[in-house]
Design goal:
By secondary structure, the protein is an alpha/beta fold. Helices cover about 40% and strands about 15% of the residues. The two termini are about 35 Å apart.
Length: about 425
Amino acid sequence: MSISRRPRRRRIRQFRSCAERPGVSPPDPQDISVKKKGQGIVDRLAFYRQDLGALEAAARLRGLTPRRGVDFSSNDYLGLAQSARLRAAIAGALERGVPVGAAGSRLLRGETEDQTAFEAAAAGFFGAEAALGFGGGYVANFAVITTLPQRGDLLLMDALSHASTHEGAQAGRAEVATFRHGDAGHAEDVITTWRRGGGTGAVWIAVESLYSMDGDRAPLDDLMGLADAHGFLMVDEAHATGVFGPGGRGLAHHLEGRDNVVTLHTLGKALGGSGALICGARVLIDFLVNRCRPFIFATAPSPLMAVAGQEALAILQDEPWRQAALQERVALFGAEMGRRLPQVPLSGSQIVPLIVGPDAATMDLAAQVQARGLDVRGIRPPTVPEGTSRLRVSLTLNALEAEVIRLVEVLEELWPDL
């Protein structure tokens, strides 16, 4: 177990040239990116081309491709992104003069009625004292991790935490440690070691209630016990909001409202819009408003997304069949896989990782599935650990039951060729 302690921060002197930097020699003239006019040109982008070439050789080069085929890849779990009600809500907002853009940060330009109303409604819906909106889940998670844990605290995160958690840990003030994925006992051991080593601050335990690449759950109740003894629990509900819990309130709903629980609910997955909410004690939300740089200095989310978010919460309450229908899709996929490919383990959630292993084999299999009109994507490192490249099957209401069965048939056909 390794705990990363923060070095003391220093002001860095800015130098005018490489020659003025201690220990750094000027580059060889042959290595200078662009020579003077008339002397020829050396490729200043060579490093970037070489890096991309290395990714391609390792079957890890990524590119942007158009959407096509039946949706088994998005996070639009309840099919709300194309919802007629969301469209109508946004159209109505435009009609009554709600602006498209926020035109500045919330502290600079001021609040909009729609954002204020949405945050109040969301806090009530999820059971928190207060909520604060951000432009997206990544920035919201990064913002909380870099703002709330202080020097002398310990940020303790699951080994498979989202990239935004890792980035926030690197940029934040607290000491950092990880625990084995889903292992609350190991988390306790890490805390004990830290305390014995002189750690006296608060422990901030950061987990996802439902993991985005594995589809499994965090042991929230066990971790809550540790948080009660040592500090705080931060739960990223990105892939559980709208899907699990009473009325789609998430897997951590029974913990909401505690003064040492902070939750993140995204608007861009099951809720069909864009943005995210941080929910927690009023004093923590007020602290974010006053101390959180990604909140203070960023342009606020579009007021239209607040309108869409509030309508999405209303849809969850008015149309509970969506949550039930998604669970039926999950059960159907599980039953068909159990009948046709019983050797393949399943997650039991709407996110199903089908582990292939080698990067090239994973991407080849994904291409074959896509060629049959089913949009399943391959996931490779660094998104997932080395040697665990996979197909990530995402079950949504955008796929009919017959299409779910068709996907399993295609997997049965192709899987033996791996």
